[in-house]
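Entry 0007
Protein: Formamidopyrimidine-DNA glycosylase
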Amino acid sequence: MPELPEVEALVHDLRGRLVGRAISRIDLTAFSALKTFDPPLHALHGTLVDEVTRHGKFLDIDASGVHLVIHLARAGWIRWREEVPALPARPNTKNPLAARIVIDDPDRDTQPGLDITEAGTKKGLAIYVVRDPADVPGVARLGPDPLAEAFTIEALRTILEAEGRKQIKGVMRMQSIIAGIGNAYSDEILHAARMSPFKPANSLDETELQTLYDAIRGTLGEAVQRSSGLAASELKGEKKSNLAVHGRTGQKCPVCGDVVREVSFADSSLQYCATCQTGGKPLADRRMSRLLK
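Output (structure tokens):
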């Protein structure tokens, strides 16, 4: 799933490609992905792209005051194409294409564009056409951005104290609490902080609070820097190659050499290093425990 660093890199890539150019048309091929009806999708036809920004994990293309807001969900992505077919894209259940943004370029014989795709059968990609990004419920509910100046250590302290005994892994993933951090980077942040994902949010002492704050800012900031300047096609590979524990179950921890372990849930999993994060004690994997009974 694209998280804050990848969406930030997409913003920089698309800003350079889109700002100052006109949207010729948008072909919608996955009708369930469009979550709004007013303004209509065709309100974007013929508009000029003024800016591309980010709200948490939401991508926002501002075109002449109309906002195309995209949430890529678990398996969505955006691909730039130097040339798109002249004929409008049509619905096809076997094709991952959800929508196509065709760009008007009077200096070329062909038209470039963006393909918004979603792999797999479980569909979560969402497209909104709004006059104000705050009209998107998910954007309106977002917590503070962890890379914003307003996200101070005191802001983090207030958040954790308010969440009480909730597990810190879940708190960091909740978009209404902190925007932009998902499953992968919460694993990476907690590994960098040498902290158990099951640690209660309000149990951190001053040293642990500072360590976690530094890990949040450092892990995300470094990922953004590594991704800066990369094209959209390179971002997934960059992310995967720099993860220390997430998605690396059974491999060696790059810090201590212990094996990376996993805890599985109904629709997700977390990865951690017992030596670095839990004093050498493996965490209970309830799903595996049930299977072994």
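Curator remark: The chain has two domains: 4-140, 153-292. DSSP finds nine helices and ten strands in the chain.
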